[in-house]
Design a protein that fits this description.
Elements lengths: L13 E7 L2 E8 L6 E6 L13 H6 L2 E6 L17 H15 L4 E6 L1 H12 L4 E7 L14 H7 L5 H12 L5 H13 L2 H13 L4 H5 L5 E6 L7 H10 L4 E4 L6 H4 L1 H14 L1
Parallel strand pairs: 3-4, 3-5, 5-6, 6-7, 7-8
Antiparallel strand pairs: 1-2, 2-4
Amino acid sequence: MSTPRTLKLPSGVTATTVDTTVGEFAAHTVRVEDATAHVLLVPGWTGSKEDFTPLLPLLADAGFDATAIDQRGQFETPAGAQPNYTLDGFAADALQVAAECSDAPSHLLGHSFGGLVAQHAVLGDPTAWRSLSLLDTGPGALGESPKRPLQMLVDALGVVPMGQIHQVREEMMGLKRAPEIAEFLLRRFTSNDPASLRGMTQALIDAPDVVDLVASMRLPIWVGRGADDDAWPHEVQASMARRFGTTIHVIEDAAHSPAVENPEGLADAWLPFLRGA
Protein backbone atom coordinates (compact mmCIF):
# COMPACT_ATOMS: atom_id res chain seq x y z
CA MET A 1 0.00 0.00 0.00
CA SER A 2 1.35 3.42 -0.96
CA THR A 3 0.86 6.13 1.64
CA PRO A 4 0.80 9.73 0.38
CA ARG A 5 2.77 12.31 2.32
CA THR A 6 0.41 15.11 1.36
CA LEU A 7 -3.06 15.29 -0.17
CA LYS A 8 -2.45 18.64 -1.85
CA LEU A 9 -2.24 18.38 -5.63
CA PRO A 10 1.00 19.80 -7.06
CA SER A 11 0.79 22.69 -9.49
CA GLY A 12 -0.24 21.50 -12.94
CA VAL A 13 -1.85 18.26 -11.73
CA THR A 14 -5.58 17.98 -12.39
CA ALA A 15 -8.07 15.64 -10.74
CA THR A 16 -10.42 14.54 -13.51
CA THR A 17 -12.38 11.69 -15.03
CA VAL A 18 -11.44 9.83 -18.20
CA ASP A 19 -14.60 8.84 -20.06
CA THR A 20 -14.23 5.67 -22.14
CA THR A 21 -16.54 3.31 -23.98
CA VAL A 22 -16.34 0.95 -20.99
CA GLY A 23 -16.98 3.49 -18.25
CA GLU A 24 -15.43 6.34 -16.30
CA PHE A 25 -12.02 6.24 -14.63
CA ALA A 26 -10.93 8.67 -11.92
CA ALA A 27 -7.55 10.13 -12.79
CA HIS A 28 -4.82 12.61 -11.95
CA THR A 29 -3.34 14.09 -15.10
CA VAL A 30 -0.71 16.46 -16.41
CA ARG A 31 -0.78 17.88 -19.92
CA VAL A 32 1.96 19.85 -21.66
CA GLU A 33 2.14 21.67 -24.98
CA ASP A 34 3.80 19.66 -27.74
CA ALA A 35 4.18 16.61 -25.51
CA THR A 36 6.76 14.03 -26.51
CA ALA A 37 4.38 11.18 -25.68
CA HIS A 38 1.71 10.08 -23.23
CA VAL A 39 2.39 7.95 -20.15
CA LEU A 40 -0.28 5.80 -18.47
CA LEU A 41 0.36 4.82 -14.86
CA VAL A 42 -1.51 1.87 -13.33
CA PRO A 43 -1.55 1.53 -9.52
CA GLY A 44 -1.33 -1.55 -7.39
CA TRP A 45 -3.40 -3.51 -4.91
CA THR A 46 -5.16 -1.25 -2.35
CA GLY A 47 -3.56 1.69 -4.16
CA SER A 48 -4.88 4.53 -6.30
CA LYS A 49 -3.92 7.33 -8.66
CA GLU A 50 -2.51 9.20 -5.65
CA ASP A 51 0.36 6.70 -5.62
CA PHE A 52 1.84 8.56 -8.61
CA THR A 53 0.83 12.17 -7.93
CA PRO A 54 4.29 13.42 -6.83
CA LEU A 55 5.81 11.94 -10.00
CA LEU A 56 3.43 13.64 -12.42
CA PRO A 57 5.01 17.14 -12.39
CA LEU A 58 8.41 15.56 -13.06
CA LEU A 59 7.00 13.81 -16.11
CA ALA A 60 5.46 17.08 -17.29
CA ASP A 61 8.76 18.91 -16.79
CA ALA A 62 10.36 16.25 -19.02
CA GLY A 63 7.79 16.89 -21.76
CA PHE A 64 5.34 14.05 -21.20
CA ASP A 65 1.60 14.03 -20.83
CA ALA A 66 0.67 11.58 -18.10
CA THR A 67 -2.44 9.95 -16.66
CA ALA A 68 -2.58 8.06 -13.36
CA ILE A 69 -5.83 6.17 -12.79
CA ASP A 70 -7.87 4.34 -10.22
CA GLN A 71 -8.58 0.92 -11.71
CA ARG A 72 -12.13 -0.39 -12.06
CA GLY A 73 -13.82 -0.61 -8.66
CA GLN A 74 -10.79 1.00 -7.01
CA PHE A 75 -11.26 4.11 -4.82
CA GLU A 76 -13.02 6.75 -6.98
CA THR A 77 -13.56 4.67 -10.14
CA PRO A 78 -16.97 2.97 -10.12
CA ALA A 79 -17.50 -0.70 -10.86
CA GLY A 80 -19.60 -0.12 -13.95
CA ALA A 81 -22.45 -2.26 -15.24
CA GLN A 82 -20.58 -5.51 -15.86
CA PRO A 83 -17.21 -5.40 -14.10
CA ASN A 84 -14.58 -7.93 -15.11
CA TYR A 85 -12.29 -8.16 -12.11
CA THR A 86 -9.64 -10.35 -13.69
CA LEU A 87 -6.18 -9.48 -15.00
CA ASP A 88 -7.55 -9.54 -18.53
CA GLY A 89 -10.44 -7.30 -17.49
CA PHE A 90 -8.21 -4.74 -15.79
CA ALA A 91 -5.84 -4.89 -18.77
CA ALA A 92 -8.69 -4.21 -21.21
CA ASP A 93 -9.59 -1.15 -19.13
CA ALA A 94 -6.02 0.15 -19.37
CA LEU A 95 -6.17 -0.20 -23.14
CA GLN A 96 -9.42 1.78 -23.27
CA VAL A 97 -8.02 4.57 -21.08
CA ALA A 98 -4.86 4.81 -23.17
CA ALA A 99 -6.90 5.01 -26.37
CA GLU A 100 -8.95 7.85 -24.91
CA CYS A 101 -5.92 9.80 -23.67
CA SER A 102 -3.70 9.62 -26.75
CA ASP A 103 -4.02 9.03 -30.48
CA ALA A 104 -0.51 7.55 -30.50
CA PRO A 105 0.85 4.61 -28.50
CA SER A 106 1.45 5.38 -24.82
CA HIS A 107 4.25 4.48 -22.50
CA LEU A 108 2.83 2.14 -19.84
CA LEU A 109 3.98 1.80 -16.23
CA GLY A 110 2.47 -0.68 -13.78
CA HIS A 111 3.26 -0.59 -10.08
CA SER A 112 3.02 -3.75 -7.94
CA PHE A 113 -0.28 -5.47 -8.85
CA GLY A 114 -0.53 -2.88 -11.61
CA GLY A 115 2.60 -4.44 -13.11
CA LEU A 116 0.72 -7.70 -13.59
CA VAL A 117 -2.09 -5.74 -15.24
CA ALA A 118 0.39 -3.90 -17.45
CA GLN A 119 1.93 -7.14 -18.71
CA HIS A 120 -1.51 -8.43 -19.67
CA ALA A 121 -2.32 -5.10 -21.34
CA VAL A 122 0.74 -5.57 -23.56
CA LEU A 123 -0.45 -9.05 -24.46
CA GLY A 124 -3.92 -7.65 -25.15
CA ASP A 125 -2.60 -5.25 -27.79
CA PRO A 126 1.15 -4.62 -28.07
CA THR A 127 0.60 -1.98 -30.76
CA ALA A 128 -1.13 0.27 -28.20
CA TRP A 129 2.10 0.78 -26.26
CA ARG A 130 5.34 2.57 -26.92
CA SER A 131 7.12 0.89 -24.00
CA LEU A 132 6.47 -1.11 -20.82
CA SER A 133 7.83 -0.18 -17.38
CA LEU A 134 7.45 -2.41 -14.32
CA LEU A 135 7.95 -1.00 -10.83
CA ASP A 136 8.13 -3.11 -7.65
CA THR A 137 6.34 -6.01 -9.28
CA GLY A 138 7.03 -9.55 -10.41
CA PRO A 139 6.59 -12.04 -13.22
CA GLY A 140 3.42 -13.50 -11.74
CA ALA A 141 1.73 -14.25 -8.44
CA LEU A 142 3.09 -12.77 -5.23
CA GLY A 143 1.69 -15.76 -3.39
CA GLU A 144 0.36 -16.56 0.05
CA SER A 145 2.65 -16.17 3.08
CA PRO A 146 2.33 -15.78 6.86
CA LYS A 147 3.21 -12.11 6.39
CA ARG A 148 0.51 -11.70 3.74
CA PRO A 149 -2.45 -14.01 4.41
CA LEU A 150 -4.05 -13.19 1.08
CA GLN A 151 -6.51 -16.08 1.05
CA MET A 152 -7.87 -14.93 4.41
CA LEU A 153 -8.54 -11.53 2.85
CA VAL A 154 -10.25 -13.08 -0.18
CA ASP A 155 -12.53 -14.99 2.19
CA ALA A 156 -13.27 -11.88 4.27
CA LEU A 157 -14.06 -9.47 1.43
CA GLY A 158 -17.80 -9.07 0.99
CA VAL A 159 -18.40 -10.68 4.38
CA VAL A 160 -16.48 -8.56 6.90
CA PRO A 161 -17.09 -4.77 6.75
CA MET A 162 -14.38 -2.97 4.79
CA GLY A 163 -13.72 -0.57 7.69
CA GLN A 164 -13.05 -3.48 10.00
CA ILE A 165 -10.63 -5.08 7.53
CA HIS A 166 -8.80 -1.77 7.19
CA GLN A 167 -8.53 -1.40 10.96
CA VAL A 168 -6.98 -4.86 11.27
CA ARG A 169 -4.47 -4.08 8.50
CA GLU A 170 -3.49 -0.80 10.14
CA GLU A 171 -3.00 -2.49 13.50
CA MET A 172 -0.83 -5.17 11.90
CA MET A 173 1.35 -2.50 10.28
CA GLY A 174 1.62 -0.57 13.54
CA LEU A 175 2.35 2.78 11.87
CA LYS A 176 1.36 6.18 13.19
CA ARG A 177 -0.37 8.37 10.62
CA ALA A 178 -1.10 12.08 10.47
CA PRO A 179 -4.87 12.47 11.01
CA GLU A 180 -5.60 13.64 7.44
CA ILE A 181 -3.55 10.77 5.97
CA ALA A 182 -5.23 8.22 8.22
CA GLU A 183 -8.64 9.53 7.14
CA PHE A 184 -7.65 9.32 3.48
CA LEU A 185 -6.39 5.74 3.80
CA LEU A 186 -9.62 4.70 5.52
CA ARG A 187 -11.74 6.45 2.89
CA ARG A 188 -9.73 4.98 0.02
CA PHE A 189 -9.89 1.43 1.35
CA THR A 190 -13.59 1.50 2.22
CA SER A 191 -14.42 3.06 -1.16
CA ASN A 192 -13.11 0.00 -2.99
CA ASP A 193 -15.67 -2.37 -4.43
CA PRO A 194 -15.04 -5.51 -2.33
CA ALA A 195 -15.41 -7.63 -5.48
CA SER A 196 -12.68 -5.58 -7.21
CA LEU A 197 -10.30 -5.99 -4.31
CA ARG A 198 -11.15 -9.69 -4.13
CA GLY A 199 -10.29 -10.11 -7.81
CA MET A 200 -6.99 -8.27 -7.36
CA THR A 201 -6.12 -10.32 -4.29
CA GLN A 202 -6.93 -13.59 -6.04
CA ALA A 203 -4.65 -12.58 -8.91
CA LEU A 204 -1.85 -11.93 -6.43
CA ILE A 205 -2.34 -15.52 -5.26
CA ASP A 206 -2.46 -17.26 -8.63
CA ALA A 207 -1.43 -14.95 -11.51
CA PRO A 208 0.53 -16.83 -14.20
CA ASP A 209 4.07 -15.97 -15.20
CA VAL A 210 3.77 -14.34 -18.64
CA VAL A 211 7.24 -12.81 -18.89
CA ASP A 212 8.34 -14.88 -21.88
CA LEU A 213 5.17 -14.03 -23.79
CA VAL A 214 5.55 -10.32 -23.00
CA ALA A 215 9.22 -10.39 -23.99
CA SER A 216 8.24 -11.86 -27.34
CA MET A 217 6.24 -8.69 -28.10
CA ARG A 218 9.60 -6.89 -28.55
CA LEU A 219 8.67 -3.70 -26.71
CA PRO A 220 11.30 -1.61 -24.92
CA ILE A 221 11.09 -2.66 -21.25
CA TRP A 222 12.29 -1.01 -18.04
CA VAL A 223 12.28 -2.68 -14.60
CA GLY A 224 12.80 -0.92 -11.28
CA ARG A 225 12.26 -1.30 -7.55
CA GLY A 226 12.83 0.57 -4.33
CA ALA A 227 16.00 -0.43 -2.48
CA ASP A 228 13.95 -1.65 0.47
CA ASP A 229 10.99 -3.07 -1.45
CA ASP A 230 9.31 -5.80 0.61
CA ALA A 231 6.90 -7.37 -1.89
CA TRP A 232 8.30 -9.68 -4.59
CA PRO A 233 11.77 -10.89 -3.50
CA HIS A 234 14.59 -8.80 -4.91
CA GLU A 235 16.13 -11.74 -6.78
CA VAL A 236 12.76 -12.58 -8.35
CA GLN A 237 12.57 -9.03 -9.71
CA ALA A 238 16.19 -9.10 -10.90
CA SER A 239 15.60 -12.44 -12.62
CA MET A 240 12.51 -11.02 -14.31
CA ALA A 241 14.58 -8.10 -15.63
CA ARG A 242 17.18 -10.49 -17.02
CA ARG A 243 14.47 -12.48 -18.78
CA PHE A 244 13.37 -9.22 -20.39
CA GLY A 245 16.94 -8.62 -21.53
CA THR A 246 17.60 -5.75 -19.17
CA THR A 247 18.85 -5.02 -15.65
CA ILE A 248 16.87 -3.82 -12.67
CA HIS A 249 17.15 -0.18 -11.59
CA VAL A 250 17.27 0.21 -7.81
CA ILE A 251 15.88 3.47 -6.42
CA GLU A 252 17.61 4.42 -3.19
CA ASP A 253 15.71 5.92 -0.24
CA ALA A 254 12.58 4.06 -1.31
CA ALA A 255 10.76 0.84 -0.47
CA HIS A 256 7.62 -0.42 -2.20
CA SER A 257 6.39 3.01 -3.37
CA PRO A 258 9.23 5.00 -4.98
CA ALA A 259 6.81 7.39 -6.72
CA VAL A 260 5.80 8.63 -3.24
CA GLU A 261 8.94 7.94 -1.23
CA ASN A 262 11.55 9.26 -3.70
CA PRO A 263 9.90 10.60 -6.87
CA GLU A 264 13.03 12.47 -7.92
CA GLY A 265 15.14 9.33 -7.63
CA LEU A 266 12.58 7.37 -9.61
CA ALA A 267 12.46 10.04 -12.31
CA ASP A 268 16.27 10.09 -12.56
CA ALA A 269 16.30 6.32 -13.07
CA TRP A 270 13.33 6.15 -15.42
CA LEU A 271 13.31 9.27 -17.60
CA PRO A 272 16.39 8.33 -19.69
CA PHE A 273 14.57 5.16 -20.69
CA LEU A 274 11.37 7.04 -21.60
CA ARG A 275 13.30 9.55 -23.69
CA GLY A 276 14.98 6.77 -25.63
CA ALA A 277 12.04 4.41 -26.05
